[in-house]
């Protein structure tokens, strides 16, 4: 008999983890809905024609492909076999597991474009699969949690993303974090302003390493990537920029005054922040980061990234504005803005900071316990009263010693035990014991319900 | 540019469907939790060694297999190619998509047996995949929604399953349905009593067709399956049995008096129903169906199946008791009882009976609308008040005519629009319009919040 095991890079979620994950996900869902976003789901499997070519060569390699059903190898020839896997693949597989939620969403928008109401706000919380090399904190199956609004370029959306992030984090008890904010047009403008128009890609890749390797090494890399010495020198004031929002904006207006695109980027940042103020909101947690460059090739406007302070975990949320979600499926001009929460990382952050509520999050609140058959019968007769009041309640189903029942409650982290002894049966009451404090008192059933609701 | 499409047998769920599905699933989850069940999740992918051989030959064929990553064909030889797909399969695939939630649960129990608290009550709501031929109402990806308790043979569990089904159906507004209840031991007893011990399998397969093909044809089939004429004749009183619970039990006690197992089955049915009464519950919807035979090979005690009256849709819930969940993974003797809700079918039933709440189930409740920039600014400034009160609210993000905003609200099934005109701006109020009735009134913001909470 072989011992069962899990595929590499996959996980089970037990009851404790699921309670905690649901705590996070419910908070996120409630927030999305409060802002008018509605849920959709797409299938785990997509046609390979939908997935392939959307994530670069490396992404294509990381797609999990599904073997065709039935006699899958019937069209494979000896020549295919000689040519190897790439020749065989198209003959044995036409479907793959989704790699993210963005491409399925784009497909969904295109296929349903005549029925959707634009601006269309959707959220989607589903697992995705990547054949990555498994390592600590990186899994082959993990949940993504995306919200996007498409069909509008209003900066109200950007302002509301900041509000949604702040609401989720407040509800989760996270206090110390930054919502880094930038705009792709500013990065484009910087490249133009230093005389390297169109090279914001390599510029950002290099600048991104500033914290890790320092300015001298970044300069070297830029030089290797073909940036002129003169251009690199022009970056110095940017790299050293450390002041507040107004100062940064003032500096940039000067620095980018030759770049129409750059100035547009500044204007968009200002407008989003103005909308926040109009909404009666402050700029708490908002950190305008001129060099933030997340997912550059895709974004065309705002760029977001959220980092929690004091933990070793990377960004826990991020996103940005794009102006062509669905062009690859033949529907050009669909612009929008989206962001996502990294559920696994938020889980780790809350765990590291001890922010999960102590009480079991989805578990039973009351176990009815008894000494003998008479007590069991009594417990059965009163159990429904607690459930009718919405109290998660159960009875230890097999006749057993009270000690065993209490151990069961304790192991299952059930906070209260209602003990049914002879005195309770005769008076129609219950001894309610708080397992954490050890306190117990005799209560009428009504009072016991009140105490637990 | 190729038009994107979905793989055969898969579906997207749009916002309306997701609202309705969540209405069903939230009701089920809440009920499971009220009875002490807690959620777990297992990965979509399992090792083929875990899945294969658990669902019969046909099931093995219907497993979706995942192609190994990288150079998957490197070990395939020309001989394999000549021998065809069955020889190639083990060399190119070692993982598959889960086919149900029972086998992954069994694997989970075995892998975590030292950490779980028994009796262990878990629920699990996740998609499963089967390479079935797609047809109306049958999909290649669909959700299962299972609850099981393992590590106890208490009949309290059976009684509580009846209560959970009734609670879910009551919350969903379903009134006319039967919870058919039987016990595998009774079926075993019947086979013994008619002199065909051990043949309850073929007996039930034939009897199952009674409604469709009639008794004469069933007799023929039993005869073809090797049942003696004499045995078949002994079934007549059973087939004609139509009376109430007490009468059925009395009859069976007589009919099965030679079968120890059969009598045990009767006793189990009686005990579960006695527990219901002890819990202060009636037998509403419970229908003791002596010939109910669902999933015979697997169940050893109670058998459940739920049918809604007046709809063309098959059983919407079912389950039963088993005494060896995990033996196949080397851990014998784990008994339990489980049942599941068929979410797709419940959806279809509620749809057919018009039982979904009319109001949008996860959608926005209030759209703030405006005539001009001044109104837009005012709407922005008051939006947060509604959200702070938990009211799902949004603003049309792009400057546009009021008519367009109202159309947007109407298409998105937003029930209320808050109109921000000059009078409202000056008095700090809002015209709250009910889009369904057309009624509107001018309200202070506080009153508007109260009206919508």
Task: Describe the 3D structure.
The structure is a homodimer of 453-residue chains. By secondary structure, chain A is α+β, with helices and mostly antiparallel strands. Chain A has two domains: 15-352, Bira Bifunctional Protein, Domain 2 (BirA Bifunctional Protein, domain 2, 2-Layer Sandwich), CATH 3.30.930; 366-452, 3-Layer(aba) Sandwich (Rossmann fold). Chain A is 43% helix and 19% strand. In chain A, a hairpin with a 5-residue loop joins strand 15 and strand 16 (440-444). Chain A is globular, with a radius of gyration of 28 Å. In chain A, 45% of the residues are buried. The mean pLDDT of chain A is 94.
Task: Supply the key terms.
eight-stranded mixed β-sheet, 43% helix, 19 helices, 2 domains, BirA Bifunctional Protein, domain 2, 453 residues, alpha+beta, five-stranded mixed β-sheet, homodimer, Rossmann fold
Overall CATH class of the largest domain in chain A: Alpha Beta
Find the CATH superfamily of the largest domain in chain A.
Bira Bifunctional Protein, Domain 2
Please identify, by name, the CATH architecture of the largest domain in chain A.
2-Layer Sandwich
Shape of chain A: globular
Oligomeric state of the chains present here: homodimer
Largest interface, per-chain counts? A-B, 106 and 106 residues
CATH-defined topology of the largest domain in chain A: BirA Bifunctional Protein, domain 2
Number of domains of chain A: 2
Low-confidence stretches of chain A: none
Strand content of chain A: 15-25%
Query: Order of strands across the biggest sheet of chain A?
Result: 1-5-6-11-10-9-7-8
Query: What integer value in Å does the Rg of chain A equal?
Result: 28 Å
Total number of strands of chain A: 16
Give a quick account of the main beta sheet of chain A: strands, pairing sense, barrel closure. 8 strands, mixed
For the residues shown, what is the average pLDDT of chain A? 94
> Structural class of the helices, strands and pairings of chain A?
alpha+beta
- In whole angstroms, the N-to-C terminal distance of chain A is 48 Å
């Amino acid at each position: 008999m072989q011992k069962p095991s899990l595929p590499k890079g996959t996980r089970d979620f037990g009851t404790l983890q699921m309670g905690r994950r649901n705590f996070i996900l419910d908070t996120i869902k409630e927030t999305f809905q409060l802002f008018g976003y509605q849920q959709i789901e797409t299938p785990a499997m997509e046609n390979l024609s939908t997935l392939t070519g959307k994530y670069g060569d490396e992404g294509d390699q990381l797609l999990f492909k599904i073997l065709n059903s039935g006699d899958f190898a019937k069209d494979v020839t000896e020549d295919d076999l000689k040519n190897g896997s790439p020749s065989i693949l198209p003959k044995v597989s036409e479907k793959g597991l989704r790699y993210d939620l963005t491409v399925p969403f784009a497909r969904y928008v295109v296929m349903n474009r005549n029925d959707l109401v634009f601006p269309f706000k959707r959220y989607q919380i589903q697992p995705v699969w990547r054949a990555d090399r498994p390592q600590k904190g990186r899994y082959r199956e993990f949940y993504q949690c995306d919200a996007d609004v498409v069909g509008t370029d209003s900066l109200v959306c950007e302002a509301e993303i900041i509000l949604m992030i702040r609401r989720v984090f407040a509800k989760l008890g996270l206090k110390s974090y930054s919502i880094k904010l930038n705009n792709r047009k500013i990065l484009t403008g910087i490249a133009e302003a230093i005389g390297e128009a169109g090279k914001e890609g390599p510029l950002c890749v290099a600048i991104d390493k500033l914290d890790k390797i320092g300015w001298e090494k970044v300069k070297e890399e830029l030089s290797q990537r073909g940036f002129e010495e003169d251009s690199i020198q022009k970056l110095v004031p940017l790299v050293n920029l450390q002041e507040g929002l107004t100062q940064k904006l003032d500096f940039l207006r000067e620095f980018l005054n030759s770049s129409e695109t750059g100035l547009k980027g500044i204007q968009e940042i200002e407008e989003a922040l103005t909308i926040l103020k109009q909404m009666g909101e402050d700029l708490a947690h908002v950190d305008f980061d001129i060099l933030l460059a997340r997912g550059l090739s895709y974004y065309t406007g705002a760029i977001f990234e959220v980092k929690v302070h004091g933990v070793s975990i990377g960004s826990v949320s991020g996103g940005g504005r794009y102006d062509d979600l669905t062009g690859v499926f033949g529907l050009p001009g669909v612009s929008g803005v989206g962001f996502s929460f990294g559920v696994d990382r938020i889980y780790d952050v809350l765990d590291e900071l001890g922010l999960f509520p102590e009480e079991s999050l989805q578990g039973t609140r009351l176990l009815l316990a008894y000494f003998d058959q008479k007590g069991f019968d009594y417990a059965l007769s009163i159990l429904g009263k607690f459930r009718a009041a919405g109290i998660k309640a159960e009875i230890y189903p097999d006749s057993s010693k009270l000690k065993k029942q209490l151990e069961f409650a304790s192991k299952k982290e059930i906070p209260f035990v209602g003990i049914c002894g002879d005195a309770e049966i005769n008076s129609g009451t219950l001894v309610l014991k708080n397992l954490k404090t050890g306190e117990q008192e005799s209560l009428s059933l009504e009072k016991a319900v009140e105490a637990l609701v």
